[in-house]
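pipeline/complex-builder :: batch 7 item 3
reading input block
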Amino acid sequence: MTRLLQRPVQHEEAEPVIRLAHVTVRYNSEHVALDDVSFTLQRGERVAVVGPNGAGKSTLFKVIAGILRPTSGSADVYGHAPGGHICIAYVPQRNLVDWSFPVTVADVVMMGRVGKLGLLRWPRRRDWEIVHESLRLVGMEDMADRQIGELSGGQQQRVFIARALAQEAEVLLMDEPFTGLDMPSQEVLFGILDRLRDREVTVMVSTHDLNQAADRFDRIILLNRRLIAMGRAEEVLTEANLLAAYGGQMAMLDTEKGTLVVSDTCCSRGMDDV
Amino acid sequence: MSEWLIEPLRYAFMIRGLAAAVLVGTICAVVGTYVVLRGMAFLGDALAHAILPGVAVAYLLGGGAQGPLFWGGLVAGVGTALGIGAIAREGRIKEDTAIGILFAGMFALGIALISSVRSYTVDLTHFLFGNVLGVSIADLELMAVFGGLVLLLVLAFYKEFLVISFDPILAETLRLPDAFFHHLLLVMLAITIVVSLQTVGIALMVAMLVTPAATAYMLTKRMPVMMALGAVIGSGSGIVGLYASYYMNIASGAAIALTCTILFILVFLFAPGRGLVWQRIRGEDSSRARPTAPVPSE
């Protein structure tokens, strides 16, 4: 109940956007989802999080979003625990959203304003302006009055990015946004992510497509409960690292020497494009 | 025709009954919108049954007066709602199991209490199936005050309820007090049920909570419209049901619930664009939850 009137914390601008120190998450005190993960991200970075199924990618996002408290270790966003921030946007996997819910595109984007508005306040004209400006930025202003179930997969992702913009998010966490999208839709999404970079929004994206991670992101986090490697593609996606992450499962990667194949049980649509 | 409409209105109890039906139809549809969208139909049905021991105790102590029944039901309803939340949160038992246990236990306790009185079957029938024509002015006042309170809460926390219903993860990242709102919604549901007790009764309560809101859901893509349309459908069903009850001499609660059901079936079949018949005409796959409008390629 104390959370009812809690104010968002101030950012320590000198601190890194995201800093994880020895974060471990155990479910039911048995299953280890994340094991001693530490890293820092700088403002405006675009980072891919890759690893096999069950590697803890969603868990990692939930810790950073402040939805899940780590069993041990600490996560900080701009120098404070993420639970006090309202500047972190989490775009869930598409199959976790009820697309038949009776809300329009503009309604969904307005939900991003709820944190800023506070209790017992209705959206004002300024808020609707922000909503429409956010929709314009993702090229969806013509669809503002559509019911969300009428959109294609790529358009749905764009609406959720617009919601993050309306939220004035400085950290955007996207859980497998490219899964199931065709190539043109993926390109549109990357175009929007480029625009977010201009706004210094820090973006973390989980993906199964290692080539995409290598080509389109500043840095890669290779995860399998432990942080296997983090850095630029050529440092991270080495044979030794991939074997450590995927073990007997499969991943594919085009290198200068040819295609490197490590096996993976994954079913992601992103793999088909390789 | 107009005489046919006016004739029942000569009776004051009929006018009070109609007022009660409109009140209940409106409040149930607005709260029912959340019940439908959040998948809480079973919880609603359970809460309706769980108020019985509270009503019974008030009935035994109050000697049949209506006022105490309201408060007794409210205490039992809110208590059960919070109890279900507490058991489910503790985590060892799934929520629907917790609901089932408390619902049956409370209902049994209510029947046990009432069965200690001699005139038991008549009284139990009133609680189970309602007695809308026995509504007094004082009852109506109580219903209006508490129903109005529920509507005010929906209005005041509209955007918060929308977020926690549509996207609980967003609610968490916006740091909304989601546990508080979840419990508030349960309390509002309990109040709605107690307000509606006399009109439809315990057994048919879920029809008022779910059916008009679900009918409206088939007709709109926006939540405020769903609430308003549901309110019109719910109170309209109340009026039609009462007239049907008057002329056909059938139980009023059942007549109201049946009207709701018939309206739902009609809309389910014939709703423009989304109805089953419409989809068949257009040759669409009716197994899909909702037809998708053609989308321009990106």
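note: Residues 129 and 204 of chain B are 7 Å apart (CA to CA).
queue -> next item
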